[in-house]
Amino acid sequence: MEQIREDLWLASFGTLGGVNHCGFLLLRPEGNVLFYGAPGEEDFEQISALGGIAHHVLSHRHEACPSPDLVKKAFGALLCSDAEEAPAIREESRVDVTFARTDCALGSVKVIHTPGHTRGGISCVYESPLGETYLFSGDTMIPVKDQWIAQIVPEHGGDGAVLIGSLLRLRDVEPDLVLSSASIGEYEAVAVENEEWLRAIENTAGRAPIGSS
């Protein structure tokens, strides 16, 4: 566990095939939220001291492995996902809350429908009372050293045109901190200025997503 902000922790981290995979624990008064990958059991005591986990949000199906069941069992966390991704996730664990195609919310966390990497997918926005806006972008776009890339997985319903549309939906978020579920190279939560973010969106959307034919 590594603290990033007063209300935000890097809760899990691992590298497979040169790609970093991670999870984040957001502390909030109405119940903590775990995004993406599950932490190891060795961190459960510290997580309990931080208030446990009320909801475990997966941005898409790839984050269901390793299984979220240990988190569910240890903390009673409700597993949440995009409705389109839920059938695939249910092969690993029971999904308790699904988000439809219309944008919605999980309390103070805004949920934005951003499919394209796979058939479904969500990104989440949280306006921290400490003054920053956090964007949990999933695999919609990921940092690779000094740039961002977008990638589709056709065998899991990924679609390049749909993903570009999702990227353009994120232009209005104005995040201070972008937290993707994957990265390549040395990982860090990416702090951005608004002009820099708009440029990153335009540049990424302007290239054909990796995996497109």
Structure description:
This protein is 18% helix and 33% strand. With 213 residues, it is α+β, with helices and mostly antiparallel strands. It starts with a strand and ends in an 8-residue tail after the last helix. It has one domain (2-205): Ribonuclease Z/Hydroxyacylglutathione hydrolase-like (Metallo-beta-lactamase, Chain A).
Summary of the model, kept short:
The protein has 213 residues and is of the alpha+beta class.
Q: Tags for this entry?
A:
alpha+beta, six-stranded mixed sheet, 213 residues, Metallo-beta-lactamase, Chain A
- Biggest sheet character: 8 strands, mixed
Shape: globular
As a percent range, the share of strand residues is 25-35%
Helical residue percent?
10-25%
- Return the domain count: 1
Low-confidence sequence ranges:
none
The end-to-end distance, rounded to whole angstroms, is 39 Å
CATH class: Alpha Beta
Topology pattern, helix = H, strand = E = EEEEHEHEHEEEEEEEHEEEH
Task: Specify the CATH homologous superfamily.
Answer: Ribonuclease Z/Hydroxyacylglutathione hydrolase-like
The total of helices stands at 5
CATH topology: Metallo-beta-lactamase, Chain A
Question: Which CATH architecture would you pick?
Answer: 4-Layer Sandwich
Average pLDDT confidence is: 91
* Rg over alpha carbons: 16 Å
Q: What is the number of E strands?
A: 16
Structural class: alpha+beta
